Amino acid sequence: MPTEQVEGMLTDAGGKPRDPIEQGTQSPRVSDTKRLATGLAFITPNILGFLAFTLLPLLFAMGLAFTNWDLRLHNDMRVEQFGEAPLKFVGLDNFRDLLFEPTLPGQPGMVFGLVDGWTWNNSFWKYLGNTLFFMMATPFAIGLSLLSAMLLSKDLSGGNARNKRRMLIGGAMVAGVLLMVGGTLTVMRLGSPMNGMILLFCAAAATIIVLGTTVGQTVYRTIFYLPHFVAGVATFLLWKKLFNPEYGPLTMALRPILDRMTAFINAAPWLPLTLMWVTLGLGAAISFFGFAKLRKDYVEGDLGWRSAIIPFGVMLLPALLIFSWYDPLAEGTAMAARVAVLLYMAAVFAALVHAIIYMAGGQEIACKSVEGGGSAFMFAAVMLVGQLVLIGLTATLLQLPSWAAEPAGLEPPKWLADVHWAKPSIMFMGMWAAIGGNTMLLYIAALTNVPQELYEASEIDGAGRFGKFWNVTWPQLAPTTFFIVVMAVIGGLQGGFEMARVMTGGGPAGQTTTVSYYIFQEGFETGKLAYSSAIAWFLFFLVFTVTVFNWRFGNRYVND
Asked: The whole model's pTM is what?
């Protein structure tokens, strides 16, 4: 084609370049409209699904929370039984009833000393406390997931054929020993309901070891992740059988151990009290370490004085709780227990006073008063969980001599049927499920992305295994840990429904009822749909607030 003809097609009569869109056969408006219509046609099913199953139900639930809708009162089929009441707008009454409840005639009641005739809604605050109690297992679940991910990231072959041969021989020897032990115990315990379980367990463990040493770490990763593919209800039913207080495998395995412990404690009743001193000493050591860490962050300019208030309060909380849970001044309290509790409280307050006096000297590097609050709060929360675990262990050790002196001696716990053991049992099951779940996979993926050059540099500097983990691995995992913590907190506040529904029905005495299960009870068991909607929206705002707090402070820590 001649050059003049081409230039004529690309320019107009005045010699100006033509608009590329105008060179087509369609006008720009027609072309844009067609593309828009095509795009809308493709995404219309998704938009309709979002409107029908997400947005409209949310708006309906929000409006429902401000009414008195009750299936017992607004149901034509039950008018004769419960009567009929008009559907009306009640404002914030449902949210008020969620937090407070009116007192009975003659019953004193006061909210913050200001509102007479009202008291706290014990049911809701109890179930919210249950939810927060279950979340205490979150740090342990995250830590165990990280540990399993690090173990599953190791090269079992050792990098050469000689080490691989050693692994195969060692695995075969361990598998053989397990089979011999299982067979021996089965023969010795003929007629016992546990003999088949012992042989099955030993055979399964031997098979896993042989496959792992033969194929590699992929086998162990697959086995760890297998429970995640099993339906939640099936897993809960299995654990309910394991927690059977009469003939469950855990109960049957504990009975001979507890029988020997009973005889040992009766022969040495001083031992539990000695261990009680040890556990409280560890709790005091955690307090010293926690206050020292917060004090150091403040002096070095990583923590502002306003941001330090809440973490210091969280660190002080165990000392206040142990005094309310176990009064050392009550009559009948053992002298050793009194002294131990009082010394623990004195140690915690001494650590607090020492940190405050040291901080009064000022900061070496000045920082903003709100600096570092998120990381300090997360650190204090982890220290809080550790101290609460030790306090619970202390209370158990204190009661062991009296339990062992009873005619029946030490007996396995009733697990889900015991008000004291129901929550710990479910928490143990949750930690087991978290070890091989998505958290482990996220950590495995993050560990593979840690630059090997950093490990080589730390080895040159003389860092050991812990030094490489603390200075290289853990900082590199900060973004992944931040995401896991945020999602774990959201899941913890919203969780607990399936476990309570399948395993305990919310019992015993409401000890395993969480906020999510409380929503189900009020909405679908009692029929108070408006009230349950108010609970659901309160939970939404709680989750939203905690998530914004985590994102606001935790994200800054990760980026730093």
From this structure: 0.79
